[in-house]
Design brief:
The complex is a heterodimer.
Chain A (H helix, E strand, L loop, with lengths): L1 H4 L15 H17 L4 H16 L4 H25 L4 E7 L2 E6 H27 L2 H10 L4 H30 L6 H31 L17 H24 L2
Antiparallel strand pairs in A: 1-2
Chain B lengths: L1 E11 L5 E11 L3 E6 L5 H8 L7 E6 L2 E2 L5 H7 E4 L3 H4 L5 H11 L4 H14 L15 H13 L5 E5 L7 H16 L4 E6 L5 H4 L2 E6 L2 E6 L1 H4 L3 H6 L6 H13 L10 H11 L15
Parallel strand pairs in B: 3-8, 3-9, 6-7, 7-8
Antiparallel strand pairs in B: 1-2, 1-4, 4-5, 9-10
Amino acid sequence: MFDLFSDIFTYRDNALTRIDPRAKLVIALAALIAILTAERVVLPLCVFGICLGTVIALRIPPKLVAVRLAAPLSIMAVLVVIQTFFTGTTPLFTITFAGWPFTAKVEGLRQGVFLGAKVLGSVSVVFLLSIVTPAHRIFQALRWFRISRNWLEIAILMYRYIFVLMDRVADLAAAQRLRLGYTARGRAMRSFTALAGATIIHSLEQAKRTHDAMRLRGYRGTMPFGPLPALGRRDRGLLALSLTLIAAAYGFFEWGIR
Amino acid sequence: MRAVDVQGVSFTYDDGTEALAGIDFCVEEGEFVAVLGSNGSGKTTLIQLLVGLLKAKAGRIAIGGREIGSLTAEELYQRVGLVFQNPNDQLFAATVEEDCAFGPRNLNIPETDVQRRVTESLAAVAALSLRGRAIHHLSFGEQKRVSLAGVLAMRPAVLILDEPTAGLDPAGEAQMMQLLKKLNREERMTVILATHSVDMLPLFANRIYVLDRGRVLQQGPSEEIFCHQEMIVRAKLRLPYVSRLMYEMKRHDGVPIDGLPLTIGEARAQLLELIPKEMILPGIEEIGP
């Protein structure tokens, strides 16, 4: 759970963390558009490969990668299975489950892999962005792109208090565990329900206290955002180069290979 | 002019709990005042009234000579700042710099001034090196200092702190109190401290208010406050440990101690006068087993 939100790598100093967040956002957006509009499986898989290679080069622990990619990989697996067994006409193989025969089809498998690759490629782009850019820099960049202040304010507060609430939940859960709260299924269910209720109450109390603290420092309904300096020459060059590469890759993989 | 002037203020919560019952509370400019009381004595209610988070049901509160109700939010929060007991209540931005800049940016001052205030306030709490760090990567002591910096960036004339040393280790506690002393003595900032921790107060506070069940039991300099043993017990407080030791030695062992020392320095001076010179061995650095 804690690994899912860990952001210590975004504060490391490397070539990718030094890039302006606006440039990274635009490059990520371009890559996402390319993946989502791709009609062949190669481009999404290439993007996934590049992102994964970069993640390995940045020495991100495999456990963190596995935790972050677990959900999209599960979605991909479900997509592949559903498409394989319920789409297409050309039989590939048949399996029997609980007395029912299920036939995998070639067209379904292709479609499943294609959709799964899109999910994987898109998620890997967002994952890479999230491990080379601190959240507050992304919020700053989004504000620069004129994303709604209210939306960003909620996102900032959610991001900040995830860590506070996680600490509290961990303490409460440990206190329950130390008093044998999870030793039987029924007891565990009751403990978990109590934990969930306590977390909601904690978050409401926290919200009240935080709002008081914000009011005392002049908050009047809109959170101020720090300005971002003009995009530097290096970042502009990098942005142009990246967009050109994405366009070239799109052209090559989508229209070039037959 | 009085920095804070509270006259006959009462406050009762919606559930009928009477938190304050007609209290008077005054703080002069540049004073370091401690509000001492046990849990439920009304300390937190009093400080919430002083910063306008609660509205008094009766009485008058003036900050810097002006009634609190006549001040706009901008005016009030540049006069008085509150540091919460739990820094997590107060640190809501993602990074130290963003959090410290929150208040000044709300004042709509130029960004260069915002940055100057951030630098100065972080320097004042010895946290400049934390500027780019994420809040959730800080230790508890660092969070405490950064939450103080966030309030200092508003440049309030009166600084109010709710249990500033709660949860800190002894070194962090001493560092926090030294910081407050520096702000008070060097920057001439008025400091009001709500606490039930008595040991450090004689070293720092000019005056102490003792609250019990919403009433002021006693107010005055620490030597005056701590000589009223019965009142201290009634307020569910205690003497500083060093004073307690000297008091017990005087009462039970007949050691001729003059008055009641409140600090280690005072106690040491008195004991040295009582111990024959030939018994004192010079140069002992460590206490053996």
